[in-house]
Structure to design on (79 residues):
């Protein structure tokens, strides 16, 4: 069962499969998420999921059991 991913603030939607890496989904959608270490240590790729929790997109995947997921991108001008 695919998951509808909604990227904010760009208002872009794309279908993804559970377990698919968030960075890969973003790249397919044409959304750029800044990265640094690609290991979850630097938090450059931190995004907010459904307005509740923050995760590092470099080490996170589309969760199973969801039909829709909203990913809000942060913008840190100092990075």
């Amino acid at each position: 069962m695919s998951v509808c991913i909604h990227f904010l603030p760009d208002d872009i939607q794309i279908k993804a499969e559970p377990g698919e890496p968030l960075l890969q989904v973003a790249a397919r959608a044409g959304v750029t998420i800044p990265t640094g270490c690609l290991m979850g240590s630097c938090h450059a790729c931190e995004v907010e999921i459904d307005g509740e929790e923050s995760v590092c997109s470099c080490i996170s995947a589309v969760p199973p059991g969801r039909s829709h997921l909203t990913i809000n991108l942060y913008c840190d001008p100092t990075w």
